[in-house]
Amino acid sequence: MAWTILPLLVAFMATTTAAAADGDRKPYVIRMDVSAMPAPFATHDGWYKSLLSSATTASSSPAAEHLYTYTHAMHGFSAVLTPAQLESIRSADGHVAAFPESYGRLHTTRTPGFLGLTAGAGAWPASRYGDDVIIGIVDTGVWPENPSFHDAATSLPPVPSRWKGECESGAAFSPATACNRKLIGARSFSKGIKSRGLNISDDDYDSPRDYYGHGSHTSSTAAGAAVTGASYFGYANGTASGVAPAARLAMYKAIFSSDTLGSASSDVLAAMDAAIADGVDVMSLSLGFPETAYDTNVVAIGAFAAVKKGIFVTCSAGNDGSGGYTVLNAAPWITTVGASTIDREFTATITLGKSTKTIRGKSVFPAPAASAIAAGDLYYGRGNRNKQRCAFSSLSSKDVRGKFVFCDAGGVSVVEKMYEVQNNGGLGVIAAATDTRETTTMSPADYTSPLVLVTPSDGAAIQRWYASPSPSPAKSTKSVSIRFGGTETGVKPAPAVAYFSSRGPGKMSPTILKPDMVGPGVDVLAAWVPNKEVMETGEGRKVYTDYNIISGTSMASPHVAGVAALLRSAHREWSPAAVRSAMMTTAYVRDNANDAVLVGSPSGSPATPLDFGAGHVSPNQATDPGLVYDASPDDYVAFLCGELRYTSRQVAAITGRRAGCAGVAVAGGGGDLNYPSFMVILKNASSATRTFTRTLTNVAGSPAKYAAAVMAPAGMKVTVTPATLSFAGKGSKQGFSVTVQVSQVKRSRDGDNYIGNFGFLSWNEVGGHHVVRSPIVSAFAQ
């Protein structure tokens, strides 16, 4: 399986057209109304298997194959069926919905400090580092021997008594040695992928053990134990810690390395079903299926069931880049997380000749500890533009063998320049980057030979030095030496929205601003699998590591899962919606240089809420938000019935509510969903007016008064009624309305930019310190 810089599970829907032949068997997920179960059956499982038996008898086809029975993520089952068997199930009493299997393939030492987490004050001591909270991760498995999953050094108390999960045995996975007070559960789900005759790769394990590394990385990011001396070949050296280091972890492996596919929707739903039954408090999924209607999206269905049980669910937003309407996992009951950069860069220092002049560039080349300094003569193809840029087939081994090669910006990508040098026997590459994106698109696995990226201005300095007379008449060549393994923190500006992070709004419910927030997702160091090479250098050296640096919204979701664990530990009474509200209304939108957060740093344009949602997560502020926008599962049902106009059957398929939309109050539509943001969709005109109603709940310990403050751009008028709110003690509620008038907004010339304009509503505590801020956004319809 090829590794990419942006690890996110992107699923591809199987065709919904049934073949005419009865022998065309396919897996389906079936939702059932358990109130229709006939009296003779003692269990739902027995009823489902009887239906499958009857469906088989009614045809001359191979027997219907039962895969999973679901009792928590939804009521129903999955099975491999022929078209005739499917129709037999659909005609049975109690059938609610059936949809085909979906398949997929694959989508810290600094980040806790960057998030402001310290032992002295704030979220860590307030939550006792996430003590007594259980985080469930649905991913590629876990490598239990990694120190991030050990409990010896953490002095964790016994496993919470409410835990009902398992530590399963399987290939190369023994519960006796794998699980402990940190990693309290591990299970795997592969029936769906096997039902299609897809073999799990010989390199992977039919067990909870991780082959790919992705699951170990995400789980250690959320709640890994503190590990001193962690690094990637000297880069990012320090103490690696999860965001909630005292929280417990449970792994639910549902993603495998197989013949052609990586996951099956029935397996993912089974993993979510088990996590709900086991008693997790927080669930994180760094994966996603295409944004279909929520009644056919297993992540949306499973997440709704989890939220009904009080479980906070966070998902990655996707890595589809800067275009609007690209965000995944956008159901309003899911907390959707985009990716941001942090204030850290990995560096190499170039010394020009024997002078004291040095240039600092960017590199993640995994130099062996014994040879962290590389030295050699430098070649630059002066007078030939193709040679200067190291274009394809421009260099000759006669000129560059055994030398470092300097490559100008432009022409071809940095990776192509490196391969051209490498193919001609060059020792390594110093390349001038064309722009910031060229440095951030490269993963550590791309550094197959010694490579240093420098700015265009530093590249010009190297050219001038190369052209200057040699200090030694006897030696006409110029030499350089490079020290790898550098790490610089405090880099400005940071954070910035990662260029690859998917943008909102969501396709299925555009009136809800997505993503909800952003969190660290670029160059994150976390646990890895030691037996799978992360790369192979040009000279054939295979590189292995216990800790790896990777990027993607996959890395951002477990950061927010860790923050949610801290908040759940500090505030056990908070609902999932309250936890999300606390993070959204305290998120920040200015970087460490006190400027507007950018898209791509440092030369990018200012970001908007379609890029970052409410802003960048801030755990310490979220611990004490003052007020929250709360919401219940019934509120989401009203949203589905009112704003999205879902049928009763669709609502039943998502929520399990047998009555569907019957008796649901939908006055005001989706504008009345008590969400911590305000979204106006511009349809056939560049102007619109919408009134929202909201309710705030006091979660502070004393009475308080708040005053509304609006920051709105030209073309947006915002009216808040009433303009002040007075709250009694903790738990008191106050409602208000917001009318947003958008007039004559011009659409950007960039066809992918859907932003109209945006502002913010802040509720400022009178005589206090709480500020409860929400974005107000207008966006053009897709």
Automatic annotation (TrEMBL):
GO terms for cellular component: extracellular region. Its main location: secreted. Residues 1-20 form the signal peptide. One of its GO terms (molecular function) is serine-type endopeptidase activity. PROSITE patterns: SUBTILASE, SUBTILASE_SER. Residues 130-594 form the Peptidase S8/S53 domain. Residues 376-462 form the PA domain. InterPro entries: PA_domain, Peptidase_S8/S53_dom, Peptidase_S8/S53_dom_sf, Peptidase_S8_Ser-AS, Peptidase_S8_subtilisin-rel, Peptidases_S8_3, S8pro/Inhibitor_I9, S8pro/Inhibitor_I9_sf. Residues 28-107 form the Inhibitor I9 domain. The active site is at D139 (charge relay system), H214 (charge relay system), S554 (charge relay system). Pfam families: fn3_6 (PF17766), Inhibitor_I9 (PF05922), PA (PF02225), Peptidase_S8 (PF00082). GO terms for biological process: proteolysis. Keywords: Glycoprotein, Hydrolase, Protease, Secreted, Serine protease, Signal. Residues 672-777 form the Subtilisin-like protease fibronectin type-III domain. It is found in: Secreted. Belongs to the peptidase S8 family. This is Subtilisin-like protease.
